[in-house]
């Protein structure tokens, strides 16, 4: 039976089955390794498994119960049987610390939910709990294509971040597996569609928009406290947990997320959502970049038009970089205009934080009617530009010129100093500027 030691450590008994007589072992799980010894002092442990992503743990089940675990020893898989409840505890404590092998032992694959160039997402069922989840299957040939291991490191970083996240507005990671040809990240299954898909079919009321922005800000406040930058907030990465209920949405896809302490400040994200400071070489951007991205989402939900227009991803990216933005918010309430202006400030030092934004009067407004944006408040509804497939960039060897942004060591330049005195107009300047023949670009 198990003996508790700390939140992440415990001891349990297990046995190796032999033809003549089973052999009893003692297992100790601590912060960085598993020790398996014939004695309880673990001074000379026969089997050691380092808790890192180079290690794998295997499982056996019978009648919907865990019955054994397996580890590689001198290239041979050794099986250890134990009490089912102890094995469940071991399984739970290894979450996100090693890759599990033989995914088909634990999960049954059902229909495909989506696919991309490097991965597919399936609906899967856990054989032990009979609960449904989503499995993100990432091809190994894609992960290992680059010699610098950037894609592998990015995947590991995503896993390390997600195992620490626990917020109702952020998708939860459940398990990680490694197969012969793929890595598998098991996530909670969200029942609804992306906000991008939902928004194309429905007109949102201001009450719904307020629910969406409030829920996202709550998640960003949580990420800010934990010093995490998502770096790719967009409509496609907000998914409804319950069908038709925008108040249930969750943020997904932490493939580009980093800690604020990470010195690598690459240009990354999706054109049309990227904060101005991310385009500036050596400017140390912060979690405020996510506020800007959410501001662009807020803008689109309000007026059904993108903040930065273009017929191709390259055009959108160029307008995004130059801060040449659309302006169709003239009929919004003062509270709405004020919040979105603060979220879209070009200077991140003047941009509102997530926790500050949650206290904004916009969330205290009372709206009349529930028919849609145009009926509740006379926002200007305009023709949307042709739909352009979002182009995700990371350090852009695949899409645009390589732009890497490193953190500044020592004293930090001001945003205006980094830009130079003749940069692009701020949101404030653009909002107050008279139009001169163009309804979507500041001349």
Automatic annotation (TrEMBL):
GO cellular component: nucleus
Keywords recorded for this protein, A-Z: ATP-binding, Kinase, Nucleotide-binding, Serine/threonine-protein kinase, Transferase
Top-rank taxon, per record: Eukaryota
InterPro entries in the record: Prot_kinase_dom, Protein_kinase_ATP_BS, Ser/Thr_kinase_AS
Record keyword Nucleotide-binding present: yes
Domain Protein kinase: 107-363
Residues binding ATP: 140
A Pfam family that the UniProt record links to this protein: Pkinase
Molecular function via GO: ATP binding; protein serine/threonine kinase activity
SMART domains on file: S_TKc
Family under the similarity heading: Belongs to the protein kinase superfamily.
Name by which UniProt lists this protein: Protein kinase domain-containing protein
């Amino acid at each position: 039976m198990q003996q508790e030691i700390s939140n992440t450590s415990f001891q349990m008994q297990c046995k190796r089955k032999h033809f003549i007589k089973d052999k009893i072992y003692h297992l100790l799980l601590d912060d960085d390794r598993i020790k398996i010894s014939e004695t309880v002092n673990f001074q000379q442990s026969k089997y050691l498994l380092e808790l890192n992503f180079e290690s794998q743990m295997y499982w056996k089940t019978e009648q919907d119960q865990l019955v054994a675990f397996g580890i590689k020893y001198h290239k041979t898989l050794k099986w250890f049987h134990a009490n089912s409840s102890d094995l469940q505890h071991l399984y739970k404590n290894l979450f996100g610390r090693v890759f599990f092998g033989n995914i088909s032992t634990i999960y049954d694959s059902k229909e495909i939910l989506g696919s991309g160039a490097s991965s597919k997402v399936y609906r899967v069922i856990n054989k032990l709990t009979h609960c449904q989840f989503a499995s993100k299957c990432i091809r190994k040939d894609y992960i290992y294509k680059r010699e610098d291991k950037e894609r592998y490191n990015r995947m590991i970083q995503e896993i390390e971040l997600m195992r620490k996240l626990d917020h109702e507005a952020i998708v939860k990671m459940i398990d990680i597996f490694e197969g012969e040809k793929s890595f598998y990240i098991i996530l909670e299954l969200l029942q609804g569609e992306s906000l991008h898909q939902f928004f194309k079919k429905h007109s949102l009321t201001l009450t719904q928009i307020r629910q969406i922005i409030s829920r996202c800000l709550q998640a960003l406040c949580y990420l800010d406290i934990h010093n995490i930058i998502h770096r790719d907030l967009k409509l496609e990465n907000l998914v409804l947990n319950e069908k038709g209920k925008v108040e249930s949405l969750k943020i997904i896809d932490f493939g580009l997320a980093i800690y604020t302490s990470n010195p690598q400040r690459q240009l990354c994200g999706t054109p049309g959502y990227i904060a101005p400071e991310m385009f500036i070489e050596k400017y140390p951007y912060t979690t405020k970049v996510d506020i800007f991205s959410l501001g662009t989402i807020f803008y689109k939900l309000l007026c059904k038009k993108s903040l930065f227009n273009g017929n191709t991803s390259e055009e959108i990216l160029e307008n995004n970089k130059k801060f040449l933005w659309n302006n169709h918010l003239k009929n919004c309430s003062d509270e709405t205009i004020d919040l979105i202006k603060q979220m879209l400030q070009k200077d991140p030092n003047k941009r509102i934080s997530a926790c500050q934004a949650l206290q904004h009067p916009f969330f205290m407004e009372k709206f009349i009617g529930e028919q849609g944006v145009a009926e509740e408040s006379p926002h200007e509804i305009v023709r949307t530009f042709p739909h352009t497939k979002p182009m995700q960039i990371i350090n852009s060897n695949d899409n645009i010129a390589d732009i890497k942004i490193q953190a500044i060591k020592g004293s930090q330049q001001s945003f205006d100093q980094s830009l130079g005195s003749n940069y692009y107009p701020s949101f404030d300047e653009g909002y107050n500027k008279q139009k001169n023949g163009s309804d979507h670009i500041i001349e």
